[in-house]
Amino acid sequence: MSPQYIKAQANMKPGVITSSGFLGDDERPILDIISHDEETMRKLNLDFAEVAEAMHRIMTEGLKGLGEPITVDEVLLVQVNDARGFLPCPFEDGIFRKTNVAARLASTGRLLLYSDLSLHLFEKHHFLQGRGSPFRLEPEVLKEVLRL
Ligand SMILES: [Zn+2]
Question: Which residue range forms the structural domain that includes residue 88?
């Protein structure tokens, strides 16, 4: 891996940027995690830009609830918590508000959790986080909850 990726992986360990980190119990190099998830996204016919756009839109709509759950697209129950403070990206290319989104698909109960930073990691770096990470984005869950 390039020095940039080695540095990013070190920044993702627990206690560096967040207490739980971004890797969960996944010990693979992050480039392997990224290429495996890119493959899964392709198989599910999911486009990174399209998924990210839907997540941005749901976050924007959810913010209108001012911390309370609100219905978005008639089928999603969305709650957005906007905590004080910022988190830097492990790739060191920006800082992000501590905004957490919980979007639940009413029909199945499936829950999609993401933050401003996890959305950036997904959109910019195609990094969905390691297995076991609390904010890991599973492509199957994205497809189901975003209905893409
Ligand atoms: Zn970044």
Answer: 3-146
